[in-house]
Design a protein that fits this description.
This protein is an alpha/beta fold. It is built from 20 helices and 14 strands.
């Protein structure tokens, strides 16, 4: 299997890196566990500064916003030192780029944070946002939209490549200034800019990938409205009609009304109606099929761009699952052996797999033992929570639920009434149960220790049998529990169990 080439030899490392993002509305520090294919945030702090408030009117960054931003940057510098960050990447976006006093502010900001700050152009901002989406959703095909306080960046992505992109000055803060706080006037302004955005013609029949905290709030609200069982924003998908409905609703609400909505961040109550308006008008013009939320954006795209090509091409999901195995499994090497062992059953005439199914099976193998430290009564529940809530990317919601339920059934062995099961079809449920049964057999044979599974054969043989083959040196591993689990697995597969000792 070429997918795990290098897994065995790559030592676990912890070399934290940080991204400081100076935006029109907020200044943020995110520290990640390293410059890796699927970086995990270990610290995240955002300070609302409102740097871009009033820029459309005065042409200058607000004095109060500057003071708050510099104080935040000094704190971020101290925090990064305390955490042991090895490298800090600092970027500034629309407000600093366009304000007459932007350069003066950047000079003070560089002194405060202690590193140089890259003032991104609109095209660069769009590029990093798109790279972030590609890093988190490798199969992305459509238009990426990154909505900041001052601007909207749009860029076409297809087959992992970046195509045309544009920047529009219709971020919520800017819209509030340009419209004088009138949502009706803001709609006219948005429509004027979108009418000239010929790029949106490429959106018809494809997905729109929504980046930015404003649009994540809309997705969170839609989740709550529909009592969606998986509270994970990344790769959450709405149809165009669903997204338009929630955007239209929110754009018509006052900021005071939004402050009473639990799912809406209080800090975004003033800007959310304008962000919702932009999405509603964009979808009306572009005719996307779906709106897909991405928690990866400019910051993650920036880190992704720093990776060597070899790491860029690594599978995001399997890389994350391998990190989990190394941190939580009794023997990561055993999990790699489990991948090979299950190859004996899947992919042949009995249980054919497509590429997506094979990839999910390998991911499940890597995660199969992460709950072992919990009390035996809670290993199923523990594994379900860890997997369903993990910061995995490169996987959609049904795939995530498949992994979580597969490991849940490995321990529990019974159906659960949780709403998660409704996100899978019958074939996915069958595969989850079958794979969990194979795991139950594998672990009782190997005791989760490496070196055993490669010596034990498991295959569908002639005469509708499921054959377990053991060398004579291992025949004492057979027992009542092994026989029972083998028989149960064979029954699931419509076969009869057979043990061969040679």
């Amino acid at each position: 299997m070429s997918w795990h080439k290098g897994f065995r030899t790559e030592p676990p490392t912890y070399r934290p890196v940080a991204v400081v993002d100076i935006g029109s509305n907020s200044v943020r520090l995110v520290v990640y566990d390293g410059l890796r294919r699927s970086p995990t945030p270990v610290f995240n702090e955002k300070i609302l500064c409102g740097l871009g408030k009033g820029v459309a009117i005065t042409g200058k960054l607000a004095d109060g916003g500057i003071a708050r931003a510099l104080a935040a940057l000094r704190r971020f510098r101290a925090l990064a030192k305390q955490i042991g960050v090895k490298q800090v990447f600092a970027v500034a976006t629309a407000a600093a780029r366009e304000a007459s006093n932007g350069q003066t502010f950047i000079e003070s900001a560089e002194e405060a944070i202690g590193v140089g700050i890259n003032i991104l152009t609109g095209k660069e901002e769009a590029r990093y946002a798109a790279l972030g989406v590609i890093a988190g959703i490798p199969e992305a095909d459509g238009i990426v939209g990154d909505l900041g306080g001052g601007s909207l960046e749009l860029i076409d992505v297809q087959d992992g490549k970046l195509r045309d992109g544009i920047t529009l000055p219709i971020g919520p803060l800017r819209l509030i200034d340009m419209s004088g706080g009138s949502i009706k006037r803001a709609k006219e302004i948005v429509d004027e800019y979108l009418e000239k955005a010929t790029l949106l013609a490429n959106l018809k029949g494809r997905s729109f990938y929504a980046v930015g905290g404003t649009w994540r709030n809309l997705a969170r609200l839609h989740m709550a409205q529909n009592k969606y069982p998986l509270h994970v924003l990344h790769h959450y998908a709405m149809t165009r009609q669903q997204a338009s409905a929630v955007a239209d609703l929110v754009s018509g609400l006052s900021s005071s009304s939004l402050r009473d909505v639990r799912e809406v961040s209080k800090s975004r109550s003033d800007t959310l109606p304008y962000g919702a308006l932009v999405l509603d008008r964009l979808l009306a013009k572009g005719k996307a099929t779906h709106v897909v939320s991405s928690v990866y954006g400019v910051r993650e795209g920036l880190l992704y761009s720093k990776l060597p090509r070899r790491k860029m091409q690594a599978d995001a999901l399997l890389s994350s699952c391998w990190d989990f195995a190394r941190r939580y499994a009794r023997s990561p090497e055993h999990e790699l052996e489990l991948c090979d062992w299950t190859d004996q059953i899947f992919g042949g005439a009995g249980f054919k797999e497509n590429e997506v199914e094979t990839r999910l099976r390998y991911a499940a193998c890597l995660l199969a033992d992460i709950g072992w430290r919990a009390h035996p009564d809670y290993r199923a529940e523990r594994s379900l929570g860890m997997i369903s809530q993990a910061a995995f990317v490169g996987i959609d919601h049904p795939g995530r639920v498949f992994l979580a339920l597969t490991i849940f059934y490995r321990y529990e062995g019974e159906e659960m009434g949780d709403g998660l099961v409704h996100l899978l079809d019958d074939n996915q449920m069958m595969r989850a149960h079958l794979l969990s049964s194979i795991f139950r057999l594998a672990y009782i044979l190997s005791a989760a220790m490496p070196g055993m599974l490669p010596r034990i054969g498991l295959k569908m043989a002639e005469g509708k049998t499921l054959q377990l083959r053991l060398p004579k040196k291992l025949q004492d591993l057979m027992g009542e529990r092994v026989e029972k689990r083998l028989a149960g697995l064979a029954s699931e597969m419509g076969r009869v169990a057979k043990v061969v000792i040679d």
